[in-house]
Amino acid sequence: PIPLPLLSLQIFINNEWHESTSGKKFPTYNPSTLEKICDIEEGDKPDVDNAVEAAKAAFQRGAPWRQMDALSRGRLLHKLADLLERDRVILAVSTVIGKPFLQAYFIDLEGCIKTLRYYAGWADKIQGRTIPVDENFVCFTRHEPMGVCGAITPWNFPLLMLVWKMAPALCCGNTLVIKPAEQTPLTSLYIGSLIKEVGFPPGVVNIVPGYGPTAGAAISTHHSIDKIAFTGSTKVGKLIKEAASKSNLKRVTLELGGKNPCIVCADADLDLAVECAHQGVFFNQGQCCTAASRVFVEEQIYPEFVKRSVEYAKKRLVGDPFDARTEQGPQIDQKQFDKILELIESGKKEGAKLECGGLAIEDRGLFIKPTVFSEVTDNMRIAKEEIFGPVQPIMKFKSIEEVIRRANSTEYGLTAAVFTKNLDRALTLASALQSGTVWINCYNALYAQAPFGGFKMSGNGRELGEYALAEYTEVKTVTIKLSQKSP
Amino acid sequence: QIFINNEWHDSVSGKKFEVFNPANEEKICEVEEGDKADVDKAVKAARKAFELGSPWRTMDASERGRLLNKLADLVERDRLILATMEAIDGGKLFSTAYLMDLGACIKTLRYCAGWADKIHGRTVPMDGNFFTFTRHEPIGVCGQIIPWNFPLVMFIWKIAPALCCGNTVVVKPAEQTPLTALYMGSLIKEVRFPPGVVNIVPGFGPTTGAAISHHMDVDKVAFTGSTEVGKLIKEAAGKSNLKRVTLELGGKSPNIIFADADLDSAVEFAHIGLFYHQGQCCIAGSRIFVEEPVYDEFVQRSIERAKKYTLGNPLLPGVQQGPQIDKEQFQKILELIESGKKEGAKLECGGGPWGDKGYFIQPTVFSNVTDDMRIAKEEIFGPVQQIMKFKTTDEVIKRANNTAYGLAAAVFTKDIDKALTFAAALQAGTVWVNCYSAMSAQCPFGGFKMSGNGREM
């Protein structure tokens, strides 16, 4: 049993901890051991209503949060980053969702701290424009905060996905009502105590743990929430956009699924490509929206690529997330576990060649062996559906025109990668691929400065970079008449 | 007919629909009625024109700008024809159509033409040894659904930025007013936009419009119209393929007049701000809040101004107000006028229909209006002006913001502190100070709250 520090396991509203209105609680589990960790207060519509009331009050004209200098907002975000650094170990431990501890510590927490500091810097640089309008008017725009923002976060990078929403939202002056994934509420709740410690005014950040169909739906249909940001499956993303439309036309940002092509050309640095493709698909137990789940390899180097990929996959250490040698932990829950195994079976049945892995690790709960399929064709389910597990499908291609067409032949469009040394090829592919991010000779290079989001059904809008600011501000044009035209 | 790939087509179903002149209720002509099958054809053409390697995709950005400028030239050349068509089809005053609508169309086309080769991405100083940059790529096939109140202007507001950025479009003009959009089809062909870049499918909302908002191969839908339909469109977008959505919807815009304002100017702007185009504007200043000390004087002068109107055939000089667009709107406005009378507002002038042919309504002014009356809450979209009283700044800010809408707002005052306080406090996409309806291609326009999503211009 992991000794947990004193964590509040309740609903966070107005910088205070509350029990649920219904009195209900829900359990949260450790996927490595399948044991219950603890019970959490279960939020539902009345709790969301309370949180929205608080967030609305904190956003009122004249409230402390509205009157605060932008620079001070930035300072609070910096202080929050300081506290995350201080409590980095606790937070990494609390990310007890099967993620290897060292990855949580070095990657997740690093991303959180840097993203907070990045947006802290933007706070006093949210600028509108002066506009040279016809006739005798003075015209300028203001980029105002949208208001109360709902944020629904996933279980694969619980704290990081929360910070990706919280940082730009707060930077621009909004208030928040957050619903963390029911599988992984702990780190988000811990952030509540840090928010209070830093001194954000009450009501600026509110956290309501609970389930999607109850608490999540209450947020997406709420008439007093001005904007909703969601990271999760495309299926639920559609429901959220629908709910936003049916209720009050709240603005919507969505980060959804992907079936991301990873294109390896014959002239690529083969070791680099194999390693990147491997990490690209197996990172976080395959549970990434950016997973490189369609690897296209140019014919000439195909057998060698497959051979080296299989070696890598066989070497991948699956085990206890707290063991420093572990590279892969368990899948998040039974539902995901079953879905991944079902897709693996479909691969075998539809004729792909199983090179290694292909089944669960016996007697080990939710652990699955790193699996590689070769001779995969585009019509197979493993080539079309998002697997979200440690499964690498490798296919063959002949020409650039062909692979562009095949890579783009999906409703998804989140990321893509290209491995080549040829400048012309690299830039042609960068232009032609219908993806929100294109990586050249790298994978998962994600940093706070670079915008991230999906083409097509992988999402609406962008997170990170300066572009996220547009998702959290509302433009107001002010036009003032002058008695004479001013040059 | 239906315009696809720079060619004119009959509707797949063979059906046609009638277009009427609202000034005399007579039929002008029949137009091919598009439906799902025609939208499918149009989307296919637009998708092909957007393919990698197509003429439109490989065209220099500056050349796209040149085509938009040439289109502006042709609109200028055919200004008289277009203005006359717009006046007859839309019940719009001819002089207004010629000077204002056509003027705005030409300017907007030229404004967007200038942007075409200035769509910049950024280089980004990312951590680690990476070179990172962003590209601002065209979204793809854009569905655009246009309203009947400013048919040509709204058509241009949608196609100009879309084409400027390199997209292809499938446009559905309003069924009441398809004529100028179809005429633009012939100009688009004359300018030599590649086939499939602009496609126009006239038809009805529940058929053609729905086909567009539900289409799995349309990447974005832009709509100007009622909030009620805007919600359906965003829902359809969510249900189908998560297409991106821009909406310009209704408003119940507050116009706030302080005692220190230039009263003549305020009365005039408030009048035009409401009565322009028979009140059929999303930005209509339909809640006028006047500070107590000048209330009576303001009401007096507003009535005098409204009474000066001559109604009649919009093509004739000397006519200041034309008809409402159709019977449905006509009846809705009269119903709301009745509610005003019933709920206790004071009818100062007008209050009923005019003439025995055409959908004309007398310019109507209500005073002593209170916030709970239907005429103070619902969008009327007709020549009905509501004037209410207020005492303090804080009170009027609350009342002005107390609506699900948030399109525009105005404040009349000489005090700099008041002016800028209101500019910050009003929840509206556009705030005018000492003026109303000042719009120009350079200024972003759009709604807070349920008046819309996103910005145009």
Automatic annotation (TrEMBL), chain A:
It comes from Phalacrocorax carbo (Great cormorant). Homotetramer. Its main location: cytoplasm. This is Retinaldehyde dehydrogenase 3. The keyword Lipid metabolism applies. The active site is at E255, C289. InterPro entries: Ald_DH/histidinol_DH, Ald_DH_C, Ald_DH_CS_CYS, Ald_DH_CS_GLU, Ald_DH_N, Aldehyde_DH_dom, Aldehyde_DH_NAD(P). Catalyzes the NAD-dependent oxidation of aldehyde substrates, such as all-trans-retinal and all-trans-13,14-dihydroretinal, to their corresponding carboxylic acids, all-trans-retinoate and all-trans-13,14-dihydroretinoate, respectively. High specificity for all-trans-retinal as substrate, can also accept acetaldehyde as substrate in vitro but with lower affinity. Required for the biosynthesis of normal levels of retinoate in the embryonic ocular and nasal regions; a critical lipid in the embryonic development of the eye and the nasal region. Residues 17-478 form the Aldehyde dehydrogenase domain.
From TrEMBL, chain B:
It comes from the Eukaryota. Pfam families: Aldedh. Gene3D superfamilies: Aldehyde Dehydrogenase, Chain A, domain 1 (3.40.605.10), Aldehyde Dehydrogenase, Chain A, domain 2 (3.40.309.10). Keywords: NAD, Oxidoreductase. PROSITE patterns: ALDEHYDE_DEHYDR_CYS, ALDEHYDE_DEHYDR_GLU. GO terms for molecular function: aldehyde dehydrogenase (NAD+) activity. It is an enzyme of class 1 (oxidoreductase). The keyword Oxidoreductase applies. The active site is at E248. The keyword Nucleus does not apply. Residues 8-456 form the Aldehyde dehydrogenase domain. Belongs to the aldehyde dehydrogenase family. This is aldehyde dehydrogenase (NAD(+)). It comes from Phalacrocorax carbo.
